[in-house]
Amino acid sequence: GDSTATSATQLDGDRERIRRAYAARGYLSTRVEAFVAPAAGGLGNVAATAGLVAADRDPGTLTLRFAITEGPITAVDRIEVAASGDGATAGRSCKDALLAVIAAMNIPEPSVAIAGCSASLRGVALETSKLEAAGAKARDLFRDRAHADVAIAYAIEANADATHAQVRYALELGPVVRFGESVIRGNFRTRSSIVRDIAGDARDQPLTPQAIDRQLRALRSSGLFDSANYELLPFRDGDRVNAVLRLRERHDPRVIV
């Protein structure tokens, strides 16, 4: 019945969550088994467990035990990065991403040898949590370089007993985007030319988080505005992104500029 299917699904989900938790710490070959019995004495009986999960009835109170076989820790022997897309630069984008991955994983220098877009490692445990964080670090690197569209994913290729593995990252880069036109809103007393003088003219410059932050900090520190924020428009004009600069002027009726 439906309740039986849900119980089996829950057990499978619990086993998978436990397995992933061990994989995140480097134990890729971990096996997890679940045993169910009406009493603790029946735990470990595989036939009884299968019967209880498959039976279309309410078994009452059950005792559940997970048996975990940890296995050996998995070592990463090699990390490779392949870059593609309109914004990728041959030989450079993949290496920059690789360096970001290595740095994010805190791999000591004696344990790594880098050649092009690949790195040979020695004595480094495979931890999926670190692989994911390293991929995010590489993604942020290219977003900071004005690549609006960045995707990165990794795949693990392990040997038969999961004691050694290679990791391959695939990086997809969109083109660099630039500032387009900006429409200013909320400057009821301050002329738009003054706003642009304070913020600086960023048209055609790479659209990076740092460039946006510089402009907004200049406006907020000018003493004329209580707040300043960019609203990037969701469509592009080629590689240009247009925006609305929304301001809230500081209330001082004596000041008109």
Percent of residues in helices comes to 25-40%
* Uncertain regions spanning at least 5 consecutive residues: 1-6
**What pattern of helices and strands is seen along the backbone?**
HEHEEHEEHEEEHHEE
Question: Gyration radius, to the nearest Å?
Answer: 28 Å
Q: Strand content of the residues, in percent?
A: 25-35%
Shape: elongated
- What structural category arises from helix and sheet content? alpha+beta
Distance, first to last CA:
74 Å
The beta-strand count equals: 10
Order of strands across the biggest sheet?
4-5-3-7-6
- Describe the main β-sheet briefly: 5 strands, mixed
List the total number of helices. Answer: 6
In round numbers, the mean pLDDT is 86
Tell me what you see in this structure.
This protein is of the alpha+beta class and 257 residues long. The chain has six helices and ten strands. It has helices at 2-23, 46-54, 93-104, 128-143, 192-199, 209-220, and strands at 31-37, 63-69, 75-84, 112-115, 118-121, 150-158, 164-173, 178-185, 225-237, 240-249. A five-stranded mixed β-sheet has the order 4-5-3-7-6. A three-stranded mixed β-sheet has the order 8-10-9, with helices on one face. A two-stranded antiparallel sheet has the order 1-2. A hairpin with a 2-residue loop joins strand 9 and strand 10. Helix 3 (93-104) crosses helix 4 (128-143). 23% of the residues are buried.
